[in-house]
Amino acid sequence: MTKKEHQSAMSKVIEDVIEGTDRQIKKWGFNEHTHQEWKAILSEELAKMETEVVVGKTDGYLEGVQVAAVMMSWLRNLKAAKTYHDKMMKIVGFE
Question: Per the domain annotation, does 35 fall within a domain?
Answer without folding.
Answer: yes
